[in-house]
Predict the structure.
Amino acid sequence: MIADFFSIGVDFGGTNLRVGAYSPTAGLLESIQIPTRLRDGRDAVVADMCAGILELRERHSAQYLLKGVGIGSAGPLELPEGRLRNPPNLPGFDGLELRAEVERVVGARVAVENDANVAALAECFLGKGKKLGIDSLCMLTLGTGVGGGVILHSKIWDGMNGMAGEVGHINIYSDGPECGCGSRGCLEPLASATGVRRRAKELIEEGASPGLAALGKKCPDFAPVEISELALAGDSDAKKIFEEVGRALGLGLAALINTLNLPLYIVGGGLANSWDLFSPALFEELRYRSYVYRMTDPAQPETAGSSAAKTRVERPELGTEAGLLGACILPFNVFHDGDALSITKL
Protein backbone atom coordinates (compact mmCIF):
# COMPACT_ATOMS: atom_id res chain seq x y z
CA MET A 1 0.00 0.00 0.00
CA ILE A 2 1.38 3.41 -0.98
CA ALA A 3 1.49 5.52 2.16
CA ASP A 4 3.41 8.64 1.17
CA PHE A 5 5.39 10.48 -1.48
CA PHE A 6 9.09 10.07 -2.02
CA SER A 7 11.65 11.61 -4.34
CA ILE A 8 14.97 10.63 -5.81
CA GLY A 9 17.84 13.09 -5.77
CA VAL A 10 21.14 13.05 -7.65
CA ASP A 11 24.23 14.95 -6.55
CA PHE A 12 26.15 15.10 -9.84
CA GLY A 13 29.80 15.64 -8.95
CA GLY A 14 32.93 15.39 -11.03
CA THR A 15 34.22 12.48 -8.93
CA ASN A 16 31.06 10.68 -7.79
CA LEU A 17 27.34 10.45 -8.51
CA ARG A 18 25.39 10.24 -5.27
CA VAL A 19 21.80 9.08 -5.66
CA GLY A 20 19.34 9.12 -2.76
CA ALA A 21 15.71 8.26 -2.04
CA TYR A 22 13.93 10.65 0.31
CA SER A 23 10.58 10.90 2.07
CA PRO A 24 9.44 14.03 3.92
CA THR A 25 8.10 11.83 6.71
CA ALA A 26 11.03 9.41 7.01
CA GLY A 27 13.96 11.49 5.75
CA LEU A 28 16.74 9.97 3.65
CA LEU A 29 15.68 6.39 2.98
CA GLU A 30 18.80 5.19 1.21
CA SER A 31 21.71 6.46 -0.84
CA ILE A 32 24.14 4.90 -3.27
CA GLN A 33 27.39 6.20 -4.73
CA ILE A 34 28.66 5.61 -8.27
CA PRO A 35 31.98 6.81 -9.72
CA THR A 36 31.48 9.57 -12.29
CA ARG A 37 32.98 8.17 -15.50
CA LEU A 38 33.87 11.51 -17.08
CA ARG A 39 36.55 9.93 -19.27
CA ASP A 40 33.96 7.60 -20.79
CA GLY A 41 31.86 10.56 -21.92
CA ARG A 42 28.49 12.07 -21.19
CA ASP A 43 26.43 9.13 -22.43
CA ALA A 44 28.13 6.82 -19.92
CA VAL A 45 27.58 9.28 -17.08
CA VAL A 46 23.90 9.77 -17.91
CA ALA A 47 23.43 5.99 -18.22
CA ASP A 48 24.96 5.44 -14.77
CA MET A 49 22.80 8.20 -13.31
CA CYS A 50 19.63 6.70 -14.76
CA ALA A 51 20.58 3.22 -13.58
CA GLY A 52 20.93 4.51 -10.01
CA ILE A 53 17.58 6.30 -10.20
CA LEU A 54 15.80 3.22 -11.55
CA GLU A 55 17.39 1.01 -8.89
CA LEU A 56 16.11 3.18 -6.04
CA ARG A 57 12.69 3.65 -7.63
CA GLU A 58 12.25 -0.11 -7.91
CA ARG A 59 13.17 -0.62 -4.26
CA HIS A 60 10.90 2.04 -2.79
CA SER A 61 7.88 2.35 -5.12
CA ALA A 62 5.96 -0.39 -3.30
CA GLN A 63 5.71 1.82 -0.23
CA TYR A 64 5.90 5.33 -1.68
CA LEU A 65 4.59 7.27 -4.67
CA LEU A 66 7.35 8.99 -6.67
CA LYS A 67 7.02 12.77 -6.65
CA GLY A 68 9.86 13.31 -9.10
CA VAL A 69 13.61 13.33 -9.58
CA GLY A 70 15.90 16.21 -8.65
CA ILE A 71 19.42 16.68 -10.00
CA GLY A 72 22.03 19.07 -8.68
CA SER A 73 24.68 19.69 -11.34
CA ALA A 74 27.67 21.91 -11.84
CA GLY A 75 26.86 24.82 -14.11
CA PRO A 76 26.40 27.00 -15.97
CA LEU A 77 22.92 25.68 -16.74
CA GLU A 78 20.02 26.91 -18.82
CA LEU A 79 16.86 26.56 -16.78
CA PRO A 80 14.20 25.29 -16.68
CA GLU A 81 15.41 23.31 -19.71
CA GLY A 82 18.17 21.66 -17.67
CA ARG A 83 20.75 22.17 -20.42
CA LEU A 84 24.47 22.40 -19.59
CA ARG A 85 26.37 25.34 -21.03
CA ASN A 86 30.20 25.09 -21.18
CA PRO A 87 30.65 23.69 -17.64
CA PRO A 88 34.38 24.19 -16.90
CA ASN A 89 34.57 21.15 -14.61
CA LEU A 90 32.67 18.84 -16.99
CA PRO A 91 34.60 18.86 -20.28
CA GLY A 92 32.62 17.56 -23.22
CA PHE A 93 29.24 18.17 -21.59
CA ASP A 94 28.40 21.45 -23.32
CA GLY A 95 24.87 21.34 -24.71
CA LEU A 96 23.88 18.19 -22.82
CA GLU A 97 20.08 18.13 -22.44
CA LEU A 98 20.38 16.61 -18.98
CA ARG A 99 16.77 16.94 -17.92
CA ALA A 100 15.36 15.62 -21.20
CA GLU A 101 17.78 12.70 -21.36
CA VAL A 102 17.02 11.51 -17.83
CA GLU A 103 13.26 11.97 -18.27
CA ARG A 104 13.38 9.91 -21.45
CA VAL A 105 15.09 6.96 -19.75
CA VAL A 106 13.43 6.91 -16.32
CA GLY A 107 9.94 8.00 -17.38
CA ALA A 108 9.45 10.43 -14.51
CA ARG A 109 9.45 14.19 -14.05
CA VAL A 110 12.91 15.62 -13.55
CA ALA A 111 14.03 18.99 -12.19
CA VAL A 112 17.63 20.12 -12.73
CA GLU A 113 19.30 22.86 -10.72
CA ASN A 114 22.74 24.29 -10.08
CA ASP A 115 24.48 22.28 -7.35
CA ALA A 116 25.02 25.38 -5.19
CA ASN A 117 21.32 26.19 -5.43
CA VAL A 118 20.25 22.77 -4.21
CA ALA A 119 22.74 22.96 -1.34
CA ALA A 120 21.22 26.33 -0.40
CA LEU A 121 17.73 24.83 -0.63
CA ALA A 122 18.70 22.06 1.79
CA GLU A 123 20.21 24.53 4.24
CA CYS A 124 17.04 26.61 4.07
CA PHE A 125 14.59 23.79 4.80
CA LEU A 126 16.62 21.20 6.65
CA GLY A 127 19.65 23.04 8.00
CA LYS A 128 20.61 26.48 9.25
CA GLY A 129 17.53 28.24 7.83
CA LYS A 130 15.21 25.80 9.57
CA LYS A 131 17.15 26.18 12.82
CA LEU A 132 16.88 29.98 12.69
CA GLY A 133 13.34 30.14 11.26
CA ILE A 134 14.57 31.91 8.11
CA ASP A 135 13.15 31.37 4.61
CA SER A 136 15.61 33.52 2.62
CA LEU A 137 19.38 33.13 2.40
CA CYS A 138 22.46 33.19 0.22
CA MET A 139 24.97 30.34 0.30
CA LEU A 140 28.55 30.36 -0.94
CA THR A 141 30.23 27.02 -1.60
CA LEU A 142 34.03 27.12 -1.48
CA GLY A 143 35.27 24.07 -3.34
CA THR A 144 37.26 23.62 -6.54
CA GLY A 145 35.55 26.87 -7.53
CA VAL A 146 33.19 29.22 -5.72
CA GLY A 147 29.49 28.56 -6.21
CA GLY A 148 26.51 30.49 -4.98
CA GLY A 149 22.82 29.91 -4.40
CA VAL A 150 20.06 32.33 -3.43
CA ILE A 151 16.77 31.35 -1.77
CA LEU A 152 14.07 34.03 -1.65
CA HIS A 153 10.93 33.29 0.37
CA SER A 154 11.43 29.52 0.13
CA LYS A 155 12.12 29.48 -3.63
CA ILE A 156 15.37 29.24 -5.57
CA TRP A 157 16.15 32.47 -7.38
CA ASP A 158 17.32 31.33 -10.83
CA GLY A 159 17.28 34.67 -12.55
CA MET A 160 16.25 35.07 -16.19
CA ASN A 161 17.60 31.75 -17.48
CA GLY A 162 19.17 29.90 -14.56
CA MET A 163 22.44 31.80 -14.25
CA ALA A 164 21.74 33.79 -11.09
CA GLY A 165 23.95 33.24 -8.08
CA GLU A 166 27.32 33.22 -9.88
CA VAL A 167 28.93 34.84 -6.85
CA GLY A 168 32.30 33.28 -7.70
CA HIS A 169 32.55 35.81 -10.50
CA ILE A 170 32.04 38.94 -8.46
CA ASN A 171 35.09 41.04 -9.28
CA ILE A 172 37.26 41.59 -6.20
CA TYR A 173 40.55 42.93 -7.58
CA SER A 174 40.64 44.26 -11.15
CA ASP A 175 44.30 43.27 -11.52
CA GLY A 176 43.94 39.94 -9.71
CA PRO A 177 44.66 36.42 -10.98
CA GLU A 178 43.07 35.05 -14.12
CA CYS A 179 39.73 33.30 -13.71
CA GLY A 180 38.35 30.41 -15.74
CA CYS A 181 35.48 32.65 -16.84
CA GLY A 182 37.91 34.77 -18.87
CA SER A 183 38.09 37.72 -16.48
CA ARG A 184 40.62 38.61 -13.80
CA GLY A 185 40.36 39.09 -10.05
CA CYS A 186 37.09 37.19 -9.52
CA LEU A 187 36.28 35.74 -6.12
CA GLU A 188 36.73 32.19 -7.45
CA PRO A 189 40.51 32.18 -7.98
CA LEU A 190 40.96 34.00 -4.66
CA ALA A 191 38.74 32.01 -2.28
CA SER A 192 38.57 28.48 -3.67
CA ALA A 193 40.59 25.36 -2.93
CA THR A 194 42.24 25.85 -6.31
CA GLY A 195 43.07 29.43 -5.40
CA VAL A 196 44.62 28.47 -2.07
CA ARG A 197 46.88 25.97 -3.78
CA ARG A 198 47.78 28.48 -6.50
CA ARG A 199 48.73 31.10 -3.92
CA ALA A 200 50.88 28.63 -1.98
CA LYS A 201 52.77 27.75 -5.17
CA GLU A 202 53.34 31.45 -5.87
CA LEU A 203 54.85 31.96 -2.42
CA ILE A 204 57.05 28.88 -2.86
CA GLU A 205 58.32 30.20 -6.20
CA GLU A 206 59.16 33.55 -4.59
CA GLY A 207 61.62 31.63 -2.42
CA ALA A 208 60.85 33.26 0.92
CA SER A 209 58.41 30.70 2.43
CA PRO A 210 60.46 27.85 3.93
CA GLY A 211 57.49 26.13 5.56
CA LEU A 212 55.49 25.99 2.33
CA ALA A 213 58.58 24.98 0.38
CA ALA A 214 59.14 22.05 2.74
CA LEU A 215 55.50 21.04 2.33
CA GLY A 216 55.80 21.19 -1.45
CA LYS A 217 58.92 19.05 -1.39
CA LYS A 218 57.36 16.49 0.94
CA CYS A 219 53.99 16.43 -0.80
CA PRO A 220 54.05 17.93 -4.33
CA ASP A 221 50.29 17.42 -4.72
CA PHE A 222 49.43 19.14 -1.43
CA ALA A 223 45.84 20.20 -0.82
CA PRO A 224 44.39 23.10 1.19
CA VAL A 225 44.02 20.84 4.22
CA GLU A 226 47.82 20.49 4.46
CA ILE A 227 48.22 24.25 4.13
CA SER A 228 45.65 24.78 6.89
CA GLU A 229 47.51 22.33 9.15
CA LEU A 230 50.68 24.32 8.53
CA ALA A 231 48.84 27.55 9.37
CA LEU A 232 47.43 26.09 12.58
CA ALA A 233 50.97 25.07 13.53
CA GLY A 234 51.93 28.75 13.30
CA ASP A 235 53.50 29.12 9.85
CA SER A 236 53.12 32.81 8.98
CA ASP A 237 53.00 32.33 5.21
CA ALA A 238 50.29 29.66 5.41
CA LYS A 239 48.33 31.93 7.76
CA LYS A 240 48.74 34.78 5.27
CA ILE A 241 47.08 32.70 2.54
CA PHE A 242 43.94 32.19 4.62
CA GLU A 243 43.90 35.83 5.69
CA GLU A 244 43.86 36.73 1.99
CA VAL A 245 40.98 34.30 1.47
CA GLY A 246 39.08 35.97 4.30
CA ARG A 247 39.62 39.46 2.90
CA ALA A 248 38.44 38.43 -0.55
CA LEU A 249 35.35 36.80 0.96
CA GLY A 250 34.70 39.90 3.05
CA LEU A 251 34.72 42.06 -0.05
CA GLY A 252 32.44 39.69 -1.93
CA LEU A 253 30.02 39.32 0.96
CA ALA A 254 29.93 43.07 1.50
CA ALA A 255 28.68 43.52 -2.07
CA LEU A 256 26.07 40.78 -1.59
CA ILE A 257 24.87 42.11 1.77
CA ASN A 258 24.60 45.69 0.52
CA THR A 259 22.67 44.48 -2.53
CA LEU A 260 20.43 41.71 -1.18
CA ASN A 261 19.92 42.60 2.51
CA LEU A 262 19.11 38.97 3.39
CA PRO A 263 19.05 37.67 6.96
CA LEU A 264 21.52 34.82 6.42
CA TYR A 265 24.67 34.15 4.39
CA ILE A 266 26.18 30.67 4.67
CA VAL A 267 29.80 29.94 3.81
CA GLY A 268 30.15 26.24 3.02
CA GLY A 269 32.12 23.82 0.88
CA GLY A 270 35.33 21.99 1.68
CA LEU A 271 37.39 25.12 2.24
CA ALA A 272 34.94 26.23 4.96
CA ASN A 273 36.66 23.68 7.21
CA SER A 274 39.34 26.37 7.56
CA TRP A 275 36.76 28.84 8.94
CA ASP A 276 38.81 29.65 12.06
CA LEU A 277 41.74 30.66 9.86
CA PHE A 278 39.95 32.96 7.41
CA SER A 279 36.86 34.22 9.27
CA PRO A 280 38.60 36.91 11.41
CA ALA A 281 39.81 38.69 8.25
CA LEU A 282 36.40 38.12 6.63
CA PHE A 283 34.52 39.89 9.43
CA GLU A 284 37.10 42.66 9.72
CA GLU A 285 36.73 43.42 6.02
CA LEU A 286 32.95 43.04 6.15
CA ARG A 287 32.54 45.56 8.97
CA TYR A 288 34.66 48.03 7.05
CA ARG A 289 33.11 47.54 3.60
CA SER A 290 29.39 47.06 4.33
CA TYR A 291 27.43 49.75 6.12
CA VAL A 292 24.39 47.46 5.98
CA TYR A 293 26.32 44.82 7.92
CA ARG A 294 27.54 47.37 10.47
CA MET A 295 23.95 48.41 11.18
CA THR A 296 22.75 44.81 11.49
CA ASP A 297 25.83 43.11 12.99
CA PRO A 298 24.62 40.54 15.56
CA ALA A 299 27.90 40.93 17.48
CA GLN A 300 27.20 44.58 18.27
CA PRO A 301 25.30 45.52 21.45
CA GLU A 302 21.73 46.72 21.12
CA THR A 303 21.40 50.50 21.20
CA ALA A 304 18.48 52.86 20.97
CA GLY A 305 17.31 52.97 17.40
CA SER A 306 19.39 49.98 16.23
CA SER A 307 17.81 47.44 13.90
CA ALA A 308 16.18 44.40 15.48
CA ALA A 309 16.83 42.45 12.26
CA LYS A 310 20.34 41.01 12.09
CA THR A 311 22.59 39.85 9.26
CA ARG A 312 24.11 36.46 10.04
CA VAL A 313 27.19 35.06 8.31
CA GLU A 314 27.67 31.48 9.42
CA ARG A 315 28.93 28.03 8.58
CA PRO A 316 26.44 25.45 7.24
CA GLU A 317 24.50 22.99 9.34
CA LEU A 318 24.43 20.04 6.93
CA GLY A 319 28.00 19.79 5.69
CA THR A 320 28.65 17.44 2.79
CA GLU A 321 25.07 16.11 2.85
CA ALA A 322 23.57 19.40 1.63
CA GLY A 323 23.99 18.64 -2.08
CA LEU A 324 22.24 15.28 -1.98
CA LEU A 325 19.49 16.41 0.40
CA GLY A 326 18.85 19.52 -1.69
CA ALA A 327 18.48 17.43 -4.84
CA CYS A 328 16.06 15.17 -2.97
CA ILE A 329 13.79 17.99 -1.80
CA LEU A 330 13.93 19.84 -5.14
CA PRO A 331 10.93 17.94 -6.64
CA PHE A 332 8.78 18.94 -3.66
CA ASN A 333 9.77 22.56 -4.23
CA VAL A 334 9.05 22.45 -7.99
CA PHE A 335 6.21 19.95 -8.57
CA HIS A 336 3.16 21.05 -6.57
CA ASP A 337 0.26 19.55 -8.54
CA GLY A 338 -2.25 21.38 -6.36
CA ASP A 339 -1.86 18.76 -3.62
CA ALA A 340 -1.61 19.47 0.07
CA LEU A 341 1.99 18.29 0.31
CA SER A 342 4.21 21.30 0.83
CA ILE A 343 7.92 21.72 1.18
CA THR A 344 7.22 23.65 4.35
CA LYS A 345 6.35 20.31 5.96
CA LEU A 346 9.87 19.07 5.40
Remarks:
- The mean pLDDT is 92.
